Amino acid sequence: MTKYERRGESRKFDPNFKGPIHNRGCTDILCCILFILALLGYFAVGILAWSQGDPRKVIYPTDSRGQFCGQAGTPMEKKPFLFYFNILKCASPLVLLEFQCPTTQLCVEKCPDKHLTLVQAKISNKDDQEYYRQYCKDGVDFNKLVRSFHFTRRCLPALGTMKGGVVVVGNQTTINVDGVNINATDVLEASKKSNVVVEARQVAMRIFEDYTQSWHWILLGLVIAMLVSLIFIVLLRFLAGVMVWVMIVLVILVIGYGIFHCYMEFAALKGEPGADVTLRDLGLQTDFAIYLQIKQTWLAFMIILAIVEVIIILLLIFLRKRLLIAIALIKEASRAIGHVMSSLFYPLLTFALLAVVIAYWAITAVFLSTSNEQVYKVFNNSECEFSRETCDPKTFNVSNISAQCPDAECLFAFYGGETLYHKYLILLQFYNVFLFFWCANFVTALGQVTLAGAFASYYWAFKKPEDIPAYPIFSSLGRALRYHTGSLAFGSLILSLVQIIRVLLEYLDHKLKGAQNKFAKFLLSCMKCCFWCLEKCIKFLNRNAYIMIAIYGKSFCTSARDAFFLLMRNIIRVAVLDKVTDFLLFLGKLLIVGIVGIFSFFFFSGRIKAVEDAAPSLNYYWVPILTVVVGSYLIAHGFFSVYAMCVDTLFLCFCEDLERNDGSSERPYFMSPELIKCIYVQNQKNCTSNFVIWTC
């Protein structure tokens, strides 16, 4: 087999081929049916989760009977604080997964403010006995009361330290829990772990408060980012060459200013008290402004920006001869977008669909996580046939069990459930994550096919713009949904399988962090690296397969094979053009984010004297800054993703054009005259074998 056979057969001249084929049929029907069934199952999981879960558990503390502490109109209205009988059990990952500690919990009027054991309470005065009794629960052994403080309505042990850093409870280094002496340090660790969700909620409330104060300024910043992106795209349409060079220079200057600013902040902190504290010593702080008051933070920012600056400059030096070629293709993409202006607004539909997918996944995940129930079991000292069976504490005293087993009690056992739903709850969570990946990838694939079909219609129009069909975006979207839903589902399914495997590998890596098996860690790291590379390769192949689907209307596997062989026959051009163009478009996104980010930083930090009074008072001024930066990147990415898809589509069409035609009057090129000027076909033989020398 020759190297040309291994790369597939070149396209032959077809006088009837005029671009995206309109007479096409449905592809990958089985995958379409499977995707529809999976979506129906996803809706069923959502409905089931919404009927079982209670998201109030995320916000409000609940006792072992499921009652919300401090809720108005309930017996717990005057008991707003939650008391844990065994705080050590809060160190379990269940705290994060189920928003509950697997220990008996009680709503109380106030947290304990002194240390008291059961023995001390019995031999003390009546006041101590009454004080101890309010923290007791029938049927639960509880032999020691620890002084606590309330944090977001949870009672947590008030721990201290002696000289040498020894953690103590009161004056003791140990505490007796269920008859076992536990080090106070272990209690401290359990308190910290039980606080993870609580502290996160506290930070979230402050962030929410900042959003209520600054949302209109954030919207203004995002509107400015959209206007800057639109202006940039319009300028690219008419001044592509000039704009690319301006963009390169401005990116270097913006990053350079960032390095200068970080150095000035670093120098200003020299000699300041507490500025020499390291990030490791500082640890995790909920007040993130503290990090900006130490020198090491600004030094880290400065080093990161310097590395980025050096990498960009080196890439520009090595790719300087290829930039002209990429600029020529960007010019052609600008002309295509100019004739298909509706393509610039298509990302809004993609954003809206992705927002729906993310919202559905997040809401379903919360309801699934909060659907665990308090399980009560029958506990007894004498023989009883109902021992360890599930019971209901509300009806237990009037049930058959209490009559047959007088000493039996219905006590809290654990959080979870014994129904079929609760047994397969972890599988439902897994299904929720998998369908999230599948739906998100499908929405992305739909956008890629739609844009590819529209830009292919532009390229294969012999007389531009006269031969371009009306409403190319709507026509392409209609073809994709009508004929190729199955193919899009197939491609997104393959990608989702790889992504879910990566999630499982990350989960295993988290589980093995405490393990000492170095070979297992090494093997897991290799697998993570391999699947990361595989995901990138599949994304690249899927993208080009979708372009071929948009043009020829064939199945996913056939289109992927044709795209792969076409790229292999033009492997040199792929390496030269595709990646250089992507790099230039990335610089454009970086420039827009940098400009908007710098102005938002000076505004929200109150460093612009002219508008200092207009800036809102915030807990964390980085919240609106980060929101504007991320939003600006998404907006810029939305506009530039249209350019990237346009470039990729035109590139594949260009390669097909070179294979089908030779530029003669009988077989003229479909590419624009401007693009023809950028190529020199060495001879007819080299043209047939797709070896084209680029000269611009």
From TrEMBL:
InterPro entries, sorted: Choline_transptr-like (IPR007603)
Protein localization: Cell membrane; Mitochondrion outer membrane
Bilayer-crossing regions: 29-50, 215-235, 242-260, 298-319, 340-363, 435-462, 583-606, 618-645
The entry's keywords: Antiport, Cell membrane, Glycoprotein, Membrane, Mitochondrion, Mitochondrion outer membrane, Phosphoprotein, Transmembrane, Transmembrane helix, Transport
GO MF, one example: antiporter activity
Cellular-component GO terms for this entry: mitochondrial outer membrane; plasma membrane
Pfam families: Choline_transpo
Membrane topology classification: Multi-pass membrane protein
Primary location: membrane
Catalytic activity field: ethanolamine(out) + n H(+)(in) = ethanolamine(in) + n H(+)(out); choline(out) + n H(+)(in) = choline(in) + n H(+)(out)
Its job: Choline transporter.
Similarity field: Belongs to the CTL (choline transporter-like) family.
Protein name per the record: Choline transporter-like protein
Source organism of this protein record: Sphaeramia orbicularis
Gene name of the record: LOC115426942
